[in-house]
Fold this protein.
Amino acid sequence: MAHHRTVTTASDALGIAVAARVPVLLWGAPGTGKTATIRAMAAALGWPCETVIASIREPSDFAGLPIVVDGDVRFAPPGWARRLASAGCGLLFLDELSTAPPAVQAALLRVVLERVVGDLALPDSIAVVAAANPPEQAADGWDLSAPLANRLCHLVWDIDPRVVADGLAGGFTAPVVPELPDGWAGDQGLAQALVGAFLQVRPALACAPPSDATTAGRGWPSPRTWEMAARLWAASGAAGAGSETRSVLVAGAVGDGAAAEFLAWMQEMDLPDPEAVLADPGSFALPHRSDRAYAAVAAVAAVVAARPTPERWAAGWRVLGIAARRAPDVAAVGARTLARCRPDGVQLPAEVRLFAPVLREAGLLRG
Amino acid sequence: MSEVPGVATARLWAASRFPYLASAVFGVQPREAPGVGTVAVDESWRLWVDAEVSAGWSPAQFGSVLVHHVCHLLRAHAERARAAAVPEDAAGTTPGSAGVVGTVGYDPGQRSRSVRWIWCADAEINDDLVPAGLQLPGEPVLPRHLGHQPGRLAEQYYAAEARPGRRPDGWDLDCGSGADGCCRTWETRPGTEPGLQPWQARLLCRLAAQEILRHAREIGTVPAGLARWASALLEPKVDWRRALAAEVRKAVADVTGAVDYSYRRPSRRATVTGDVVLPALRRPVPEVAVVCDTSGSMTDDLLAASLAEVDGLLRALGLTRRLRVIACDTAAAVAKRVTSARQVELTGGGGTNMGAGIAAAAALRPRPAITVVLTDGLTPWPDAAPPGMKVVVGLLGSGPGDQPPEPPAWARAIQVPAHD
């Protein structure tokens, strides 16, 4: 699925991350228009954009330059920080992040997450966006240090030839930063509860620092990135983003593996609890998508097979009877599981007749 | 749920015979597509069914087509076709409306490239699924029809210009854009419902891989090719070049990253700070040494490849002038400064002791801060790390079958497989 992480999705994701004020980092080969896109985005919003090239800076440019005032040493912020602070809004663009030497990366830690430069705290409305070339493509690249990588949402900026062709013909379009509705911060609490419930089930994913140097420079799960993921989840929901964009944002915060587990769990959440279904078979509603329907039916059949008491077995058949009305093939797969775990001395239920024709037609039943 | 005729029984057959693919089989979304002359899939898991074609099939045959198409999607043949730069067809993308098996009008001259990719992809799928009980309509495409050994990848068949001697019945059925990545005209008809989103498709692939591995573990009858696909998807192997590069870069960054403040020179910012004396930053440029195992058990190709990687990497980091290479077997040869991998002569033979090589590297002046050891691993190692030196080990040619001694815990080791 090569089209799944094209510039269009990344561009939507970038807009949402900026709207939610989550620090974001674009990874892409040199010359793919990262810098131009970010400047165009700031221009479209009418925001001042301060570009700071991290690789030619010293740590003191981010930690503040020490000066003596009345016997005290103060850490004076550089001009770009003062300009942003006085404008009250704007975009801080940190270019060439991966070519910054390790000492500069260390100095950037507070700037990226807390927006503090020297003694000056930038307003919360300042958005932080960074761009970097993957180390294997940059002439003198370093892998991003794991602490800095953990403060950013990583988006892959893959070039789509069609977007380039359109852009050359008619001008490149800037990513749209959506206007988030007022109540979206309330959704964030819900999203955090959701993430919390997931981490109860998968505690190993709450904090999993990368073990090797290859993966250290990308998103990895930690309490901070899960909170970031919850914020992005709420913001993308409030902005009405597509589910593809939302999955890219979660993966950007916590990494691909943890994001896949989280999204799979979210899908499972939509399925009815098999034990609750067995307790009240009449309430069973078959999910619309046939693979979800199969997952629901297979889950019910599996819990019956694990403990096949006569009552549970009969309840399982009633569930299959309901499923068979809309998806006889899905129900028939569950019927084969139940047929194998028939408790001793129990009569075959009436629902069995429903499945005989379809099983015979498929050549799976003799006679 | 599936109003398309024949799909229900076909899915039931497929889910019963290939239970480890059940989730994926039910994940396919059938759509009626009269007149397309085939049953095809696209990348969003939609199954385009021409009922006139499928009416001629038994449930087992239709079910087999389903399993076959699902494997196209699981193995990402469309994406791989794009990666292999399989050209899109100029004309004849819409097959004729004849709708009868075997009479679809392909012009072999115009469509040979794309059709050839689909055959290669078919051969990759069929070679272990047909023995597992797949009953495709017509004669299934197998590697031997393309003049090849089984068990290879579609890219290998394709690159070898594999061509069938003859074209048996059923080979003209189009598997769809899910197999070759070229969009078919019927997929873009207005008013068609979208299929799965890409992220949903990715999740479905992971789920199928988990089910395949669970089935292989607990029941144990999964075609080897599918099991290999599943474990590769769930436990992706990192390219050794990336891993080796990252480790060497990390070692260099750790050494150079120990940036020290020094008062030997005034800071270039001192003019603005008045009475405060600022330190300047100094950044040491590390010395790098490479120790090459030259014993009889090493293969030239692999050593040259690894050395070239290290060389290219240090060149990218701007450290080439300082690269020194030591050839080592039981006793280390004299260290030689080289500027490229081609200048290394493998002088040794016989036994191996990498400890001697590391000691020789530590004895160099100026002392290297980073030593990269390229060896097959069949060597004793020193008990303790050489003081003040980072060691990165490239273990060459080790496969899952070999059991070389564990490299010491004080070094970072990268496996470099012989075939990748």
Remarks:
- The first helix of chain B runs from residue 7 to 17.
- Chain B touches chain A through 63 residues (CB under 8 Å).
